[in-house]
Design a protein that fits this description.
three-stranded antiparallel sheet; seven-stranded mixed sheet; binds adenosine-5'-[phenylalaninyl-phosphate]; alpha+beta
Length: about 325
């Protein structure tokens, strides 16, 4: 066994005795010095003594090292519970979106999703907003640069709202329809305390026989009360969207002011007709809600820009929330 292999005090002592003890190998050399011819004694004696003190130093150093690692082992309490690694948490907009989805599901709505990159045709034309229509100014658009569009093919964009899914859903389903479509939308827009260039909307579409504006109002008021409690103050005001008639916006009382939460209206008869349905028989309503706006109300966030700034001091406040 070499000195370096001595893993504890006992092994170290064995090594020391084997080399430096009374019957040790180096001690034997030192004893043999007196039997050497006189002229060799000084050289061998001095060398053996230097070796002895070098080995004694090495034993002491090794002993110190064994002590140090024993102390270290004592300082680790293996019975302590481990540290929980940080788990992160859901984003406040995700929490709000999920809560909205649950609330609408409880009211009998299906939930579907649509594409973020959309055709101009669905985002605008088939919603009765043809190129050159002044209403296109309501949605400053981020266009997707692609060869197809430049060569006269269909132009693509980042959807400015979730309303194109009204058309896509009507292509596939027959009434009765009761569906919501949550999703991200994008607008080429300057930001301020209530406007972001990237936002989440929840589209709602309900089509059936004999539906009137009273159904729209009743559904949205019931929803708002479920979401914010019975005391919430709301107001409907006339608004214009080319794909509904009549159109309205729903505002909610917020910090002494009104915050617009959604646009809505009765689905335009031409859209019902384009879907191959008889507009005299089928009517319906649609709405598009801003999820960040709802999250602002829910958590008392005064500036929408906090949501996507990714400052963990802001985001940590939502740990453990539902
Ligand atoms: C629309 O986008 C329509 N598609 C809504 C609609 C659907 C009307 C169905 C009728 C029928 P508007 O641009 O107003 O409308 O946006 C709807 C909601 O999204 C607003 O009420 C607001 O809550 C939210 N919103 C709109 N722009 C922003 C923005 N820049 N930042 C954050 N939220 C926004």
């Amino acid at each position: 066994m070499s000195l370096a292999e001595a893993g504890d005090e006992t092994a170290l002592d064995e090594w020391r005795v084997a080399w430096l003890g009374r019957r040790g190998r180096l001690t034997a050399v030192l004893r043999g010095v007196r039997d050497l011819p006189a002229e060799e004694r000084p050289r061998v004696g001095a060398g053996a003594n230097r070796l002895k003190s070098a080995l004694e130093d090495a034993v002491a150093a090794h002993r110190a090292q064994l002590h140090a690692s024993a102390e270290h082992a004592k300082s680790i309490d293996v019975s302590l519970p481990g540290r929980t690694p940080p788990l992160g948490s859901l984003h406040p907009v995700t929490l709000t979106r999920r809560h909205l989805e649950r609330t609408f599901r409880d009211m009998g709505f299906d939930v579907v999703e649509g594409p973020d990159v959309e055709l101009e045709e669905y985002n605008f034309d088939r919603l009765r907003i043809p190129a050159g229509h002044p209403a296109r100014d309501m949605w400053d658009t981020i266009w997707v640069a692609d060869d197809a569009g430049d060569n006269g093919g269909p132009r693509q964009l980042l959807r400015t709202h979730t309303s194109p899914m009204q058309i896509r859903y009507l292509e596939r389903r027959q009434p009765p329809i009761r569906v919501i479509v949550p999703g991200t939308c994008y607008r080429y827009e300057a930001t301020d305390a209530t406007h972001e260039w990237m936002l989440t909307q929840i589209e709602g579409l309900v089509i059936d026989e004999n539906l009137s504006f009273a159904h729209l109002k009743g559904t949205l008021e019931a929803f708002v009360r479920r979401m914010f409690g019975a005391d919430i103050e709301t107001r409907f005001r006339c608004d214009y969207f080319p794909f509904v008639e009549p159109g309205a916006e729903l505002g909610v009382r917020w910090q002494g002011d009104w915050l617009e939460v959604l646009g809505c209206g009765m689905v335009h008869p031409e859209i019902i007709e384009d879907a191959g349905l008889d507009p005299d028989r089928y009517t319906g309503f649609a709405f598009g809600m801003g999820v960040e706006r709802v999250a602002m109300l829910r958590y008392g966030v005064r500036d929408i820009r906090h949501f996507y700034r990714n400052d963990v001091r802001f985001l940590r406040q939502f740990e453990g929330r539902r």
